[in-house]
User: Fold these one by one.
Assistant:
Number 1:
Amino acid sequence: MAVVKELIRSEANGGISFGNHKLNAKAKLEDFKHGGDLLKVKTYYEITKLEKNGGFLYESVPGTSVTSFVESEDQVEFTVEGDKDAQITIGLTEDADYEVFVDGESIGIMNTGLGGKLSLSVELAAADQVAVKIVRQ
């Protein structure tokens, strides 16, 4: 799987791909139009962040490359790649329960609390890529 050299791009499936965990220096792209929204990405090897319409959507520490990021009202699905295990935070609906799947296996149901954020860890050091799916209950 390749990094996203253009920092962010629209995909044929209606999703986006973004981030480049191989960059040594910070890079960002603002005002990327996708599906009626304005997206902003900041990325390099230490962190990857994605904002939608000025609000928080995705963050990983260390940086990751994300492909086929598709979100709907009740679900977020994407594939993530990185050189090291990563802590990922996703912005979702406040105080809602979500079942989280990593590589097809449920890791449990999590609540977003009042901040609307859900955090999970993915083991990337031993894998080329990891599929993540988050489904509202």
Number 2:
Amino acid sequence: MQKLRDIVVRVKERDDPDPVINHSNALPIMHEVLHALKRLHEMGETTTIDLRSIPFGPGDEEALLRQLGCGEISIELQSLGKSTICETLYPGVWLIDHYNAEGERIALNIEINRVPEIVQSQPEDISDAIIRLNGQLNPVNFAC
């Protein structure tokens, strides 16, 4: 009878640069990002992927974030908690991470858009800015 220690085992290195991404939920998400990026380019359609709703195994989220990387633009917002936005290594693909005032993560999204929605000025804010700027430029407010 052959014993376990007598079995020859050969270990072969994988050619995968990141074997974790090829065997996890990260790979389908990267494909979803690719298709969304094509839709943005061809039709102007934006997409948001809620990463908190996707079941990740150990190391999956980290592998995905490593694949996306961080590109040239990063933004930090302070509004009811901290939000960080970074363009990934792929222009038009943004990683948006929201925290509440206690520092707990409340949302993690990938947004495929030319500019993330959260940093675009809202019509109500622009209306308020017009009123405030108009009031500031009123000649009565200038001391000569």
Number 3:
Amino acid sequence: MNTLPSNIIAYIFDMDGVIFDSERAVFNEWKLLSEKYNFPNLEEPYMKCIGVNAQTCKQIFLDYYGADFPYDEYCEERRRNYHVKYGHGRAPLKPGIKELLECLRNQGYRIAIASSTRTESVMEHVGGAGLLPYFDEIIGGDMVTRSKPNPDIFLKAAERLHTSPENCCVIEDSYNGILAASAAKMFPIMVPDMLPPNDMTKEKAGMILDSLTELTAILNQ
């Protein structure tokens, strides 16, 4: 079985696609809009948006559909529709997340979230799901200037945790997240969601696991 580095004292989680099974839910809301307003090939720009902040995602859509694409209008409609269905922590949790967080807390690790999502939204979803007590720090995408794949958000999380980057493990589902964690000199673990492992993640990730439950089992060895 895989083994973790012995120097790890903190775990940093992405949120969407790692804590919540939300990437598919957001994609489905965009898909409904693409059918309503007739903008095709949504999968191509959307997949590039996984793991980046709102500003970068907007630019990806504008680059793909053109400068006159009403991204802000559509994004606001998507947010409203998503909130009605999944707001206040009602998005489905990824299997095994509660057990993993409980394991980490019981073993004395420091724990943070470093998500490209706005901090206010992260707090709403995590708090609504009753998970806030597990986390020592919450870092949202609006707290740093540069989005993943730059390492800034993970470095800020380490700083807030009073931990050296090399003593941190990052749990991610996105290519940009793995790149950012590697650039931060942390130990990246990929638990794939919508994006399958590619050659880059196989090179950069310290581990690629099928589920969070698998990581709990490794921690309990």
